[in-house]
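Title: Request for sanity check on Urease accessory protein UreF prediction

Description:
We are preparing a figure and want to confirm that the structure record we downloaded matches what your pipeline produces today. Could someone re-run it with the sequence below and paste the raw structure tokens into this thread? We only need the token string, no images.
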Amino acid sequence: MIERLFPLIQLCDTNFPSGSFSHSFGMETYIQEGEVHDAASLKAFLKVYISKSLTYTDGLGCRLAYEFVSSHRAEGIWDLDELLYAACSARESREASKRIGQQMAKLCSNLYPSEELLAYLKKIQGKQCYGHPAIVFALVCTELNLTVEMAIYACLYAAVSSLIQNAVRGIPLGQTTGQSLLLWSHEVIQTAVAFIKALPEDELGRTLPGLEIAQMRHENLHVRLFMS
């Protein structure tokens, strides 16, 4: 079990070169407008972001991808990739998930190769799929014989960890505060995973209009640290 966890720990590390350090997924809009300005306001933002956005996009997407590959339904993964891309209304955030997904698929195909992951990368390179990190997490975890719960935990943890590190730079906050927030997020992520396990497939893509608007408005900010 331990040897299977090491690759997952590596994949969740904020130093993993997926490109996520360049993206705030709309958080920077809230930072510049003063809505997110300290640890307490960031915590409030993260709680909503995890439970009302990540749960229905990356979280549910990861679970569905895991189920598709476990039941040898590759066509379901290709359809899911298109749905996840189309479900994101904000152009910058949509492209952010695409770029992170493509980079992860490329890296993981070398680090943790599998027939399914190589097929996904081929689809991406052939412009038949867009690429999404939630799908890559699912494909890697099935290859490592890890549970669907572990796949979703890893997917959400990586997204939240990256967002917190970007908030540390963007607000800014101290590194100790950032780590305290990451520790706090564990329970929120666990609650989200339990909820995701029971979600129906047709809930995929639900999100908050306010967050989507912030993501859309981000590209018009005068000064930006992040690409989304």
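Thanks, this matches our download. The longest helix spans residues 39-70.
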